[in-house]
């Protein structure tokens, strides 16, 4: 703890509960692209070239150190990419072209390098060969590293973390979180991001606190600063006073002990209300290392297996065999319980560096999820084969993301049928007529839910995207995060209509967006009579606790009132007050109240 530095308090979006107290570890992921053009004197040319070479050397040294510091065998196998980066650093074209620009055009190194990089990237854009084209992102990465070293900006990578700390970053990409050593990470705090950003989802999966959308945290904290992170209220304190340090230490202890009690007590019971309404509580899974924790938290199967994480942070696409083995592990971890495997949902904030997709103006509405799979039939077919084969081992269901209309569903059914025929011809074991469901997360799918329900076996409502698309709020943009309102009457009506449409056609409905794991929303979701709720495993015991203390009568009453209300804020207040009566410990006054949130800096000595 530092007492000499001025405490700084920032308020962001608390996206994963809990309190962390520890040292900051700054991973600056903002791009070093803002370099400006300067002209140098003839006499300084040699010095400038020397400066460029020094930056190359420092960059090489950093790459060697990263390679040496990684002990973990599994991680090492992903790090051969660093060999490519070392080769790029020695690339003659890169070096000579930059030197020539410095010498002939009298440009500063940063600008000369940037020009060379832009030229190289253009050349790579024109290459037909997919494998070679992949190298473009490596060039960007290496270029950024050299630029940072020229500018003199110290950079850390998540893989370099050697002692426990709190990751402070502008943003964290799925590749960052895939590479980090999770034993070392106490919390995440980032400048940007929203409630359902990848960072938020990953923090919950790891059971660590996270605050996103802090806007300036990378400016206000440095590696080694003492930090307090309250993932419930969204408060972050940099270099706290001794009083606040002690205060939060005590709150942390209290929080941990209640969590332990809740976990121990509720994980083993089903999600059943006092008056006997049973809702299945399942887990959302991203990483294979989450599988052994499912029983511990009391998951009744996997309601959403986000398979895109199998494809991220690596050079090659996963083979059918590798996918089959992964899905097999999931089936084994779930025993008799079902595993809902969602086909690749790439795009939006999850992208594959090695596929080098064209840059899109609006990726969330672009070539994402099923649109991508339909455009890349080989990738889709490989995944379907692995899923269908894993179906022979237990209860596996297939889930298709981002469906917007009936035509897509018919096309997919046709592809699945052809894939089954193929497996049958080959004499492979697989699950015939596997249950197939669709994600309901686009408003068009909600409004034709009755038509879609006739074509599929189940629905799974993805509120993360549903809110984004129905309210036109980018789910990862902190500037509009205050408008990301799960309790918006439009969102609630959409969910209601979907459940009604599904039930009237006799199919079941799950909800697997972040809303499902949020205790405050549970009475509303019960009121809608959802059949399943799927959430990050860590949230399961608390959600079960809430469900088991409520009755459907109470939920229906509350729902009847809120469906007449006009403002999300009003709805929030009503639900909060009701929940505070029953669960005073679980719902404090600032609970999830994003609209009251004040962001910004204070040097208040009272924190
Ligand atoms: C959703 O959109 O609510 C969802 C569960 O899927 P993802 O967050 O992976 O888009
Ligand atoms: Mg989604």
- Mean pLDDT score, rounded? 87
User: What ligands does this structure carry?
Assistant: phosphoenolpyruvate, magnesium ion
Global Rg: 25 Å
Biggest beta sheet attributes: 8 strands, mixed
Count of DSSP H/I helices: 24
Structural class: alpha/beta
Q: If classified by CATH, what would the architecture of the largest domain be?
A: Alpha-Beta Barrel
Beta strands, count = 16
DSSP strand content:
5-15%
How would you describe the overall organization of this protein?
The protein is 45% helix and 13% strand. It is an alpha/beta fold. The strands form two sheets. The chain has an eight-stranded mixed sheet. Helix 16 links the parallel strand 12 and strand 13 (436-440). The longest helix has 25 residues, at 45-69. Residues 593-607 have low confidence and may be disordered. It binds phosphoenolpyruvate and magnesium ion (MG). The site of magnesium ion has 6 residues, from helix 19.
Please give a quick description of this structure.
With 607 residues, this protein is of the alpha/beta class. It has helices at residues 45-69, 73-78, 81-89, 92-105, 109-126, 130-133, 135-151, 174-179, 198-206, 217-220, 242-266, 294-297, 320-334, 369-375, 377-390, 406-425, 443-447, 449-453, 463-471, 489-504, 522-527, 540-549, 552-562, 568-582; strands at residues 8-11, 13-16, 19-27, 165-169, 185-190, 210-212, 226-230, 235-238, 280-285, 302-306, 339-342, 396-400, 436-440, 458-461, 508-511, 532-535. It has 3 domains: 8-29 and 156-263, Glucose Oxidase, domain 1; 42-151, Enzyme I, Chain A, domain 2 (Orthogonal Bundle); 272-582, Phosphoenolpyruvate-binding domains (TIM Barrel).
């Amino acid at each position: 703890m530092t007492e000499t530095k001025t405490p700084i308090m920032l308020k962001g979006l608390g996206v994963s509960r809990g309190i962390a107290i520890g040292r900051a570890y700054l991973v600056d992921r903002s791009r070093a692209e803002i370099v400006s053009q300067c002209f140098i004197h003839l006499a300084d040319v040699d010095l400038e070239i020397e400066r460029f070479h020094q930056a190359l050397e420092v960059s090489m040294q950093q790459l060697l150190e990263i390679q040496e510091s990684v002990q973990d065998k599994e991680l090492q196998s992903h790090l051969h990419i660093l060999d490519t980066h070392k080769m790029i650093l020695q690339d003659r074209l890169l070096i000579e072209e930059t030197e020539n620009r410095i010498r002939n055009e009298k440009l500063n190194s940063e600008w000369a390098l940037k020009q060379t990089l832009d030229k190289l990237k253009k050349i790579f854009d024109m290459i037909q060969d997919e494998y070679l084209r992949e190298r473009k992102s490596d060039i960007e990465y290496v270029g950024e590293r050299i630029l940072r070293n020229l500018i003199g900006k110290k950079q850390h990578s998540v893989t370099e973390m050697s002692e426990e700390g709190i990751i402070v970053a502008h943003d964290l990409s799925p590749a960052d979180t895939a590479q980090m050593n999770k034993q070392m990470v106490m919390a995440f705090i980032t400048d940007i991001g929203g409630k359902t950003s990848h960072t938020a989802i990953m923090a919950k999966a790891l059971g660590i606190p996270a605050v996103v959308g802090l806007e300036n945290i990378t400016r206000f904290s440095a590696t080694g600063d003492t930090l307090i992170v309250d993932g419930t209220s969204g408060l972050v304190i940099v270099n706290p006073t001794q009083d606040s340090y002690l205060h939060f230490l005590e709150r942390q202890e209290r929080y941990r002990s209640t969590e332990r009690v809740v976990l121990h007590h509720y994980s083993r019971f089903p999600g059943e209300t006092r008056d006997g309404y049973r809702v299945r509580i399942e887990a959302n899974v991203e990483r294979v290392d989450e599988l052994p924790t499912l029983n511990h938290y009391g998951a009744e199967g996997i309601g959403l297996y986000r398979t895109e994480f199998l494809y991220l942070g690596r050079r090659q696409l996963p083979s059918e065999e590798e996918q089959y083995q992964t899905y097999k592990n999931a089936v084994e971890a779930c025993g008799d319980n079902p595993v809902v495997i969602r086909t690749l949902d790439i795009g939006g904030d999850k992208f594959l560096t090695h596929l080098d997709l064209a840059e899109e103006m609006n990726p969330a509405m672009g070539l994402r999820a099923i649109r991508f799979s339909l455009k890349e039939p080989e990738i889709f077919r490989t995944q379907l084969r692995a899923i269908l084969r894993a179906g022979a081992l237990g209860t596996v269901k297939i889930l298709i993301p981002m469906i917007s209309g009936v035509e897509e569903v018919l096309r997919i059914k046709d592809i699945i049928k052809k894939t089954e025929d193929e497996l049958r011809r080959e004499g492979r074991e697989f699950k015939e007529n596997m249950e197939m469901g669709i994600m309901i997360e686009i408003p068009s799918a909600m409004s034709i839910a009755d038509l879609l329900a006739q074509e599929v076996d189940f629905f799974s409502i993805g509120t993360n995207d549903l809110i984004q698309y129905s309210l036109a709020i980018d789910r990862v943009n902190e500037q509009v995060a205050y408008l990301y309102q799960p309790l918006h009457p439009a969102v609630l009506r959409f969910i209601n209509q979907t459940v009604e449409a599904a039930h009237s056609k006799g199919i079941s409905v799950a909800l697997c967006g972040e809303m499902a794991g949020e205790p405050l929303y549970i009475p509303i979701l019960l009121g809608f009579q959802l059949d399943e709720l799927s959430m990050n495993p860590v949230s399961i015991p608390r959600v079960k606790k809430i469900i088991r203390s409520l009755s459907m009568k109470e939920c229906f009453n509350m729902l009847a009132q809120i469906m007449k209300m006009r403002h999300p804020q009003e709805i929030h207040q009503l639900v909060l007050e009701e929940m505070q009566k029953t669960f005073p410990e679980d719902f404090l006054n600032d609970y999830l109240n994003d609209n009251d949130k004040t962001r910004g800096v204070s040097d208040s000595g009272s924190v």
